[in-house]
């Protein structure tokens, strides 16, 4: 059979056939890959479905009781979900971190809508941040005080991520502009900063913040572990975001700077009104990639003693009744991370598509 | 008429270049360039590519720095002083070969940006001004479009209107029609002729000799970084003094 255009056959069946031929069996290699993937799916999906749904147990006093059906023991999640989500936060007060999570998600969703960008949203964010502190920390308005060590699980991840992004982004802009500055000292500092942090694994920065910084600070000067980790996160993330922004800046033609200059706009107004709006649009894909990576990196804080979602699962599976339920626990946490990361990814695509 | 003006008011030129030299690295791009432009005067600069003609006008609003000599614009010397430079740029409009409109802003926003942020004009007033100049360049109906939706000729007219919204005393044109399709050149030149007739001080780098003959008070011919010849257009075209000018004119007027 040749590939030369043939009269288009009518009807849905030939059409489906042509689609298959074009997309899945276009070349011998793609045909082989299609068959391979098909084989893998047939081998994997039914057993997985069996395990996760058909043979799953949804309520049980412990995992031994799940063993009878042989599938997933989701009873671990239904029993432990509050600990996984909120960790050691006092049980009776867990409506507070729940409210914080809800509040942050609502603010993030509102911020996705360009029509809402403005003064009102900025005020809402300021109020929201205050509310997060009041709700989590307590000590005012009749709320019992709760130490930051007990801010665990999902609210911890969100506070680290949202706070980290919000604080590191301005720093990243300054570094990106500094790296392209005419002023030698500023440029040298920016380059040194960016290369320094990009040269370190995040986990070392976390260990420095957790264990080294208190040694160098006079006693009583050091802050709670959570805030040291947050600062480390901000400093580290800023270097990566700065590089993403720089990529956008480099894509702006010189004529844009010249036109802005010739109209009498000074450096800061050129940047704010002409250059950055265009550069950031171009930088959206790498920026969101960095954001997503950063959100997932919040999981690393479990290594320096903060109780994030993963650590909470580990605590749950320490219980003699649930020793081998970590698969279900990590699947649950993975699902939470996936929802947030996929949402970010989708949003970035809609931003790119907008003209 | 403006010829007389120039001769009479030699006391306060709008633009004055005194023995300006400039190098790009080792390349001597401007060699002892001196030029005086009086109020309301129209100067057309021509010459082969690489002759330094664009560099000259880019020095006038200091998109390029000169290394030797002096440049005065409205009596203010261009030095490293940023405030002087910004003050001069507010009063000197520039139109580029590649238009350089801001692609992320609508036509209206392109026009009102500088009046609002540099002149601190209220938005409403800036928009009235913008509409006025869009009428002038004959595209009022395009106000809410983005530059990418316009033809080259329309974009260049928007660029001219954008400069005019700053109410400049001087307009610089850097090969404003070179990037345009032939059928769009006239609409841009017509706008420039209109400006010239209203008495705007203009320095134009262009190869449009018809335009030059019509509006120029002074023709400047540059070659290899030097001003070879300066003359009123009648004289310049009829009896060029320099052999190089004659050669250039014969090449450019043949087509």
Description:
The complex is a heterodimer of chains A (355) and B (255). Among the domains of chain A are: 11-54, no CATH class; 160-306, MetI-like fold, CATH 1.10.3720.10. Chain A has helices spanning 12-23, 28-54, 63-66, 75-86, 95-112, 119-137, 153-179, 184-198, 202-216, 225-250, 254-262, 267-297, 309-316, 326-353. Helix content of chain A is 71%, strand content 0%. Chain A is globular, with a radius of gyration of 26 Å. Chain A is an all-alpha fold. Chain B is an alpha/beta fold and 255 residues long. In chain B, 41% of the residues lie in helices and 24% in strands. Chain B is built from ten helices and ten strands. Chain B has helices spanning 2-8, 53-60, 82-91, 107-117, 123-136, 152-164, 182-197, 209-215, 233-238, 243-254; strands spanning 15-24, 27-37, 42-46, 68-73, 76-77, 92-95, 170-174, 201-205, 218-223, 226-231. Chain B starts with a helix and ends with a helix. The model of chain B is unreliable at 1-10 (pLDDT under 50). Chain A binds chain B through residues 253, 255-256, 258-266, 269, 273-274, 277-278, 281, 355, and chain B through 61, 63, 82, 86-87, 89-90, 92-94, 96, 98, 100-104, 113-114, 117-118, 146, 159, 162-163, 166.
